């Protein structure tokens, strides 16, 4: 009994390459399908979680005016006139808005144009106009 195979029993190099290509293709398709399945579940859960967080934020935002009504009523309970209490709360709103506006303006002044991107775009445009010179 001989363990050596005859040359006729062995597949050709072309056949081996074809089989390897099929196996790699099947493996890649399977990996893509697995990734799709995992990502669809992850994205679905992430979307639901994000939506719930957004809803919680909206509800919290809607409750803020009640906080300021309570603050004004506390000032009334301390002994201030009601109109003065609400005026104080309104001025507090204006102060907070003014501080936020100043902070926002200072942040906007710090914004710089993308120098490197502009330079590469100019270079690309120049090359596109004259691709053979460079």
UniProtKB/TrEMBL annotation:
Origin superkingdom: Bacteria
Entry keywords, A to Z: Membrane, Transmembrane, Transmembrane helix
InterPro entries listed in its UniProt record: Phage_holin_3_6
Residue ranges of the TM segments: 52-77, 83-103
A matching Pfam family: Phage_holin_3_6
Protein name: Phage holin family protein
Lineage: Bacteria, Bacillati, Actinomycetota, Actinomycetes, Mycobacteriales
């Amino acid at each position: 009994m001989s363990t050596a195979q005859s040359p006729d029993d062995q597949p050709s190099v072309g056949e081996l390459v074809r089989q390897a290509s099929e196996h790699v293709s099947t493996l890649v398709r399977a990996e893509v399908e697995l990734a799709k399945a995992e990502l669809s579940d992850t994205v679905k859960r992430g979307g639901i979680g994000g939506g719930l967080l957004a809803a919680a934020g909206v509800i919290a935002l809607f409750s803020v005016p009640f906080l300021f009504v309570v603050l004004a009523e506390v000032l009334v309970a301390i002994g201030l006139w009601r109109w003065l209490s609400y005026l104080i709360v309104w001025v507090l709103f204006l102060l907070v808005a003014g501080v936020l506006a100043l902070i926002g303006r200072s942040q906007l002044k710090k914004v710089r144009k993308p120098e490197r991107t502009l330079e590469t775009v100019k270079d690309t445009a120049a090359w596109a106009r004259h691709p053979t010179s460079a």
